[in-house]
Each structure stands twice: as C-alpha cells, then as structure tokens.
Amino acid sequence: MIKFLRIKNLATIEDIEIEFNDGFSILTGETGTGKSIIIDGIRMVIGEKGTADMIRTGERKTTAEAIFYINLGNGQEKDLPVENTNELFIQRTISENGVGKSYLNGVLTPIRKIKEFSQDLVDIYGQNDHVFLRQTEYHLDYLDYYANLFDKRTSLLQTARELRKLFKEKIELEEKEREREKRLDFLNFQIKEIEKAQLKPHEEEELIQERDILKNAEKIHVLVEDALNISYNQEISLFSLLSKLQNKIDALKDFDKTFEEMSGATGQFSIAVKEFSDFLVQFEEKHLVSPERLEILEGRLSEIEHLKRKYGNSTSEILSYLDKAKDEYLTLSMSQEKLSELEQKMKQEFSKYVGKAEELSRLRKTAAQQLERLIEKEIYHLGMKKARFQIHIESSILTLDTMDNIKDRGIDHVEFLISPNPGEEVKPLHKIASGGELSRIMLALKTIGKVTEKGKALIFDEIDSGIGGKTAESVARKLKELSGYHQVICITHLPQIASFSTHHYKIEKIIKKGRTFTVIKKLNFNERIHEIARLTAGSHITETSLKNAKEILLHNLGLTQQDKSSKKSV
Fold first, then answer.
1. The domain at 1-121+456-522 falls in which architecture?
2. What does the pLDDT read at residue 72?
C-alpha cells in the first residue's frame, strides 16, 4: 500500500504531501481542480511515461516520490529490494529537457526495473479502462490471466514460431524444386567450365609477371650478359680479380697470421659471386626469347579473363564461386531427401503444437465455466441481478496445409457475451452493454482474483462514469469490500461512493498572485458532510441537503449519532 506521496511542480501542483491509510480512501473535488494530476503523480512514481510538458510553468523539473508499505512474509516482497524493513521508497524526476531519473531506496535505478517492481505494488484503473471490453482480443487475455495459463501460452508460442519457421523453409525448398532441374543443368555447366580451366590461386598475377618478362626478353638478355661479364666471364671480372686477390693474401699469410682471416672472407666473396653468376645463367636460360611461350601465356590469360567476366574479378573469386556452385549443386541434388526430412520434422512439430493447443483449449473451457459463475455473482452484487454472462469459445480446426490457423495464442477465439435482462438471448458484450454496465462488469473482472493477491494499492480514476443511483451504491459496496484486502483509492463525483469511504480527501484549486495551485486536505466528519452535500446538490447547499448528506454518511459508515459526536475525523 501507499503510505506517503509527495508531488512537486507537476502541472498546477507546486508541492503537496499526502499520507494515505489502508482501507478505502476517496478523492473528490470540482472538475478541473487537479484530481487526476494526483494519479498522474502516482503513475510517474511507478515508472509510466512522463514528459517535460508535465512540469509546472516556470520550474525546471518535476518530482514525484512515494513510500510503500510491504507485507513481509505474505509474498508481496518477492523480487523487491527490501531487507528487514516494511518500507520501500521510490523517487522519480523529469527535467525540462525530458531526461528522467528514478531511485529505489535512494539508489539510482533503471526505470524498467521500477516498472517491474511496481507491478506488485499498484494497479491503476482509469475511467476508460472498460474500453478493453469492447475489443475481443483482450477477452482471451483476461481468461488466460484468470486461469494462470500464460506459461503454457509461452510454450505454445515457441512451438508456433518453430513450426512457421519450418513451413517457410519448406515453401522456399519447394520453390527451388520447381526450378531444380534447370538450375542443376546450369550449375553443372558452370562447374565443368571452371574445373576444365584448372585454375590456381593467384595464377593470373604469376602469368602477367612472366608475360612482362618475355615481352622484354631482348633487353633483359643484354642486361644479363653485361652482368655476367662483370661478375664472371671477362678476364677482369669480379671472380677473376677475387682469385688474384686470394693468391696475394695467401702469400702474405707467411708474414702475418692476421691475413688468414682475410683469406677466409675473400673466399666467401668468391663463392657469392659464383652463385650470383650461376643465377644469372639460369635466369637467362629460363627466359630466352620464345614467341611460342608468349603466345601460350596470352591464350591462358585470355581464358582467365573470359572466366572473370562471368564468375569473379580474380582467380581466387572464380574458385570461391566454384565452391559455392558445388555446394548448391549438392543441396539441390539432395533436395528431395531434405524436403522429405523437413516434412517429417514439420509433422512432429505440428503434433506438438496440436497437443499444446488442445490442452490449452481444454483448460480455458474449464476455467471459463468457473469464471462465468464468478462474474455473474459479482455483477449480481453490483446491481445486475438478472443478468446472464457467458464466455463463448470457438476453436478452429488445425491442418498442416496452411499456417493460417497456427496462432501464437492457440486455436481459440474468446468472446464475452451478456444478457442484461431476463428473456433476452446472450449477445456480444461490446455490442449491447451500456457504459454503466461495462463499468460494473469491468469492476467485477478487476476484482476477481484480487482477494488472493492481497496488499496492493488499487487506484480507481473515475471508473464510476455513467452510473448513478442504486448502481453507484452497489459499486461503492464492492469497493468497500475490496478495501478489506487491499488499499483502495478512488476518484469520484458520486456521493454514494464518497460516503462509503473510510478516508476522504478534498482537492481544490486556488489562485494566489495570478498563479494557480492545487491543494489537498483530509476531511473530518463535519467537512465530509459539506462535501457530500456539494456532490449531491451542487453549489446550492441548504440545511436540508446538509441533513441528507449527514444521514447518508452516518448510514453508509454504519455510525450512530453518538459515534459521530465522539469521532473527530473519518
């Protein structure tokens, strides 16, 4: 439950603090005084979307903070960051540039986490929440929520997605199969064409290099001959001169042992020159002028260029294309086998889906019968004493021919039906129920199952719109009953509902120095009489209306005149 709420600089609110109690609390006030802004502040605290345009004019940020009481040991503290304390503090700020920050027990916390925690703390029901009753897709969701079937729905969803994935693969494979023979012939031609060429990686670069050498063979021959003459062939070549130098050094060794080392170095030079000369000879023999070889190279390069135009920009790319073509050829060659395997796998997955969907459908139908009785009981106490409520479930027939009936939520279409009056057939709720009837049915749906949860703050923002008289009194009694299990906070314009509350807060709008301020006050008994009289008679409050308001308040609170005289506030 909410123990304390503080809101700063939100719309017309400058700074207000509210201490809430358990039980049934009512917020009333003239239209436009800012009642719903209080709820907006609570929505901010629990992580709903906030924007910079909510900030009070002239201020730089808005802040909303609340202290929640947690029922330790009752399961409500599960997953909440509470340690040996019954209190949880949440703060939310939004700055003028739209940046928001949220804090949990004083620690900066992602807003996503705040929203997760708040699901166990607060439920807010707006005056338009019954709109979901007009949209049949929500009927199935509510039934599954009531029957606690969302885990089974998640499992079914995973199977449905896997089945659709397999079906898509099958369609794609069947489309390929239709073109299979043509594609196989084409791939076979391409593979043979490339394999016949017997390409090697980087072969083109090597061939171009060799061709360039052959085209310059005459010039290369002259350069090689000159190099051979310098290094070896001539009488005064490097090799000949090194031999003579070797003889001189050998003669000097007899006079100084130091020349022995020089003799070895000179020998190494001679060997290097000889090896270089041998390389020149081999190079020249390898690259002799050969028009025939040049013609072969040009032909080979022309063949590679032809393949490049079709399969890639280099020999490496052509060979990569060859590998892909072989893989596709193999896949297509085995497509019948793969298609058979895929169909078998689809049958297995389809069987799993059918089993899960039919189990889910059975559970829904059993839960629907229970829920029908509960809703009829609830709306009976809300003034719809002769109404009949039914949950119609239509299940589709599943076949593996199409994915149209493979739904993430199963095979069932669920729709709420009602007969508000005796003798009338049940008809779709969204077509025949009035706004007041929808409000009461919505309240019944919202309250079913809340008894087992316990300890939440349930906030109703003018859900009594469109009702009055005895119906309003029935709704008030239901809210009062609900407050035995939860903290109930309700914004209302109806005196019937306001007079049943344990705690009554009045919201007013005042103007100071040209600025508008929203203020809130908890009313004592006498102040409540005046407020209920205002709700009943409007601005023209008379002694009679005050007397009537007092009687209503005493009756609905179960008080006597003696109780009243000893009660300072309620």
1. 3-Layer(aba) Sandwich (3.40)
2. 64
